[in-house]
Design a protein that fits this description.
alpha/beta, 8-stranded mixed beta sheet, elongated
């Protein structure tokens, strides 16, 4: 009882709370449940598309390898005030930087291009399996050889006719397409629109692929290199270690492993080549000096032979034995110093001639100054590092420019040290020559010819000593080239699982499911947010304080014979569709006690005002009370036409005074429910003025003498003033709102009419209510009562 009273009274709420339009979680749940079929269909379709997408995608696998970057251990402590280590430290270059450099070099364009050439990755072979193209690599039934160089993209299909013949079709070269088909024989060169090719079969596999069609593509070397580089990734295992992880992704597992193996092999080879540059430059320098010394030695030997022949000299050893014995120590010292001076002078000339180049300084172990040897070693290490970075990142790289600055600072220091050392040797040589000259002065008694022979012999001895020294150094350089190895060790050969990393099937199917649910949800959510019409009781209670006395569901009339005038409360449908009107009849008692005159109006035509007024009249008549429906719509006379009252006389004639007996104007509508109708009559020229006359009160007075209830079917309140004029004789005003018909923005105006008291005892009836899928506030008032009696009857 209290619930009905609260429903009828519907206490006012705060105006700000009324204007809020919140889409609650319950609304979302109701929306999903009411359209569950669309959600299921959308989910099934999206999942099907997801499955179809996965069927067209090739599985991508990942392989990894781990290598250890070892320290060379070749660095020597430098006695320089500003050595290479100190300069690198001041420049911010530390030991860990070399590992970062190797991480970049591993995926450099130069190394990857070598791998592409070695494995012929610029040519790909594919075989279609249902919706998916399978990439072939190790089990290829044939190989296509391209003698010519192609710069544009080339693609074509190869069909194996038998073990000897094939056909080529669907040829694409660059942007051109050729529809011609070319047949050929394996191992024979054929001419295609893009150039000559030769197909070499694998006789062990070719018979298994007879009738199969393969797709062959060939890209340029640079394009293939860029494609492989994008799939190679390198990184340090952690910041504290020198372990480097290399990974590669591919649709073929064996190709991924071969790419990593070839990349590691090419990287090791490049390191060996870089390290051999010092030894190779030293060997080249020694070879050039050997050629020069050999020529000078030949000249000295020829000069000695010519001198002896010209002067008939055969044996000078007996004459010069005393000199040789006395000056042996001086000569030996002079020879050694002159050899060192020659080597140092050659080295100094080499450095001065290449001061602006990027060549390595030859490493000559004959230098007795350990300081100079250490400087040269440090210089070569920096130069190697600089050349490697320049080959991969370019001459303008900040790292290369920084190393160039360090090298430019070191080279003058080394040259100055070598010059100082050369000056020291020259001083020692001058002193040795002075001592030797003193000994030679004692030999003034020796014949002049004998002295000339000694001079020539001394030159010969010096050249022979220098020549022997260079030969030894050449052997050392050759040995260094033979034993050089890379400073890396492969810790983990290419490894990985056979589980593909892409496409991620579970994620894609989950995304498809979410998309399948999100699409209908978004559509219905946006549709609901853009829907500005009244959506039911909840909207009305949110924006107004007008009591809602009932909700009438959508009625689809199926039994026209039992309800000829849309009276759904009688006939076969009364148990179901009569309950909403009985609820309205019951709730009107809480609007006003002992009411007799009920006026029905609406906002605009088409809201079911006349339908509800007729059925409400029949509902009141079913209680045994005589009821009359008065059509006061003198303009359109909708009720009169719908009930078939075609008489010319009606309410307008009574209001005009032409007829005074109201009883003569009423027409029985449904005798079994005690229901009569007072038609509108003829359309007057001044309906508003007639309704304002006192004759309207007289009409109601006479009708009250004959009927218990009087139902006024009025005009829409927002179109003409007749509704407000007639409202003076009503006890209760029932305002009919139809769902999805009236804009919600009109509800505040309707609330203002209620607050201002424009209509007496105003209440609302919601017509065409969609109870299916609605929650509280959308259909609770009649959901239980409608099916109660009908269900009970079906059970019986």
């Amino acid at each position: 009882m209290n619930q009905v009273q609260s429903m009828g009274a519907n206490q006012p709420q705060q105006q700000n709370a009324q204007t809020e339009d919140v889409f609650s979680l319950r609304d979302i749940i109701d929306m999903v449940l009411s359209h569950w079929a669309w959600f299921v269909i959308s989910a099934v379709i999206c999942i099907s598309f997801g499955y179809l997408y996965l069927s067209t995608q090739s599985n991508v696998y990942q392989r990894e390898a781990v290598m250890l970057v070892k320290d060379d251990g070749n660095k020597r402590p430098s006695s320089m005030g500003m050595g290479a280590d100190a300069m690198m430290s001041l420049s911010g270059v530390f030991a860990n930087s070399s590992v970062k450099n190797e991480v970049y070099i591993l995926q450099s364009n130069q190394l990857v291009k070598q791998v592409v050439k070695e494995l012929e990755l610029d040519v790909s072979y594919s075989l279609k399996n249902r919706l998916r193209w399978i990439s072939l690599y190790d089990n290829i039934p044939f190989k296509v050889k391209f003698p010519n160089v192609f710069t544009d993209f080339t693609g074509f299909d190869v069909e194996v006719i038998d073990s000897c013949k094939f056909s080529i079709s669907k040829i694409t070269y660059g942007e051109e397409e050729f529809k011609e088909t070319i047949e050929g024989t394996f191992n024979d060169s054929i001419s295609a629109p893009f150039g000559d090719i030769r197909i070499e079969p694998n006789m062990e596999l070719i018979s298994e692929y007879i009738g199969k069609r393969f797709h062959i593509t060939r890209t340029s070397l640079d394009a293939a290199t860029n494609a492989i580089r994008k799939r190679v990734s390198t990184s340090q295992v952690d910041k504290e270690s020198t372990l480097v992880r290399i990974s590669f992704t591919d649709t073929n597992i064996q190709r991924a492993e071969d790419v990593l193996s070839a990349l590691l092999s090419a990287y090791q080879h490049s390191i060996v080549v870089d390290k051999n540059q010092i030894a190779q430059n030293t060997a080249d320098f020694i070879d050039s000096r050997l050629k020069l010394i050999s020529a000078e030695l030949s000249d000295v030997e020829g000069e000695l032979a010519s001198f002896k022949q010209a002067n008939n000299l055969v044996d000078l050893s007996a004459n010069a034995s005393a000199y040789i014995q006395q000056s042996s120590q001086a000569r030996q010292n002079t020879v050694e110093l002159e050899s060192q001076v020659s080597v140092v002078q050659y080295l100094l000339d080499f450095m001065k001639n290449n001061i602006y180049g990027h060549n390595l300084i030859p490493s000559l172990g004959g230098l007795t100054d350990a300081n100079i040897q250490g400087q040269i070693s440090e210089f070569n290490q920096l130069m190697l590092q600089r050349n490697r970075l320049a080959s991969n990142s370019g001459e303008n790289s900040p790292s290369v420019q920084e190393l160039d600055n360090n090298i430019s600072q070191m080279l003058p220091t080394i040259i100055a040290s070598v010059e100082a050392y050369l000056n020291s040797l020259n001083v020692q040589l001058a002193k040795a020559k002075q001592e030797e000259a003193g000994l030679l002065g004692t030999l003034s008694t020796v014949p002049q010819k004998e002295r000339q022979v000694i001079d020539i012999t001394r030159k010969q001895t010096i050249k022979e000593s220098l020549y022997t020294y260079l030969l030894n150094k050449r052997e050392e350089a050759a040995l260094q080239l033979a034993i050089t190895e890379a400073n890396i060790r492969v810790v983990e050969q290419p490894f990985g699982t056979n589980i593909p990393i892409s496409p991620k099937r579970m994620q894609i199917m989950l995304i498809a499911l979410i998309l399948g649910l999100a699409l209908p949800f978004g559509y219905f959510y946006i549709h609901n947010m853009l829907n500005m019409t009244v959506r039911g009781r909840k909207d009305i209670e949110k924006f107004t304080t007008i009591p809602v006395v009932g909700e009438v569901p959508r009625f689809h009339r199926t039994d026209k014979e039992d309800s000829p005038n849309d009276l759904v409360v009688i006939g076969n449908n009364q148990e179901v569709f009569g309950e909403p009107f009985r609820m309205i009849r019951f709730n009107l008692n809480y609007i006003k006690k002992d009411y007799r005159v009920i006026m029905f109006t609406s906002t605009m035509p088409g809201e079911g005002k006349s339908f509800i007024s007729r059925n409400m009249s029949a509902t009141l008549g079913l209680t045994g009370k005589k009821t009359v429906v008065v059509d006061v719509d003198l303009r359109k006379r909708t009720l009169s036409r719908s009930v078939g009252a075609q008489r010319k006389y009606g309410l307008s004639e009574f209001l005009s005074g032409a007829i005074s007996d109201i009883k003569s104007l009423t027409i029985p509508l449904q005798e079994e429910v005690n229901l009569d109708v007072l038609p509108a009559g003829s359309m007057p020229p001044n309906p508003a003025e007639l309704l304002m006359s006192d004759r309207l009160e007289e009409c109601i007075r006479q009708l009250k003498e004959q009927y218990e209830y009087i139902i006024i079917d009025n005009v829409p309140a927002q179109l003409v003033a007749d509704a407000c004029i007639v409202n003076r004789i009503a006890d209760i005003t029932v305002y009919v709102l139809r769902e999805t018909k009236i804009d919600r923005r009109f509800l505040p105006d309707l609330e203002r009419l209620h607050q201002e008291g424009k209509f007496k005892n105003m209440c609302l009836v919601i017509n065409d209510a969609h109870s299916k899928g609605r929650g509280y506030g959308y259909g609770y008032g009649y959901g239980y009562g409608y099916g109660y009696g009908h269900e009970k009857k079906k059970k019986k």
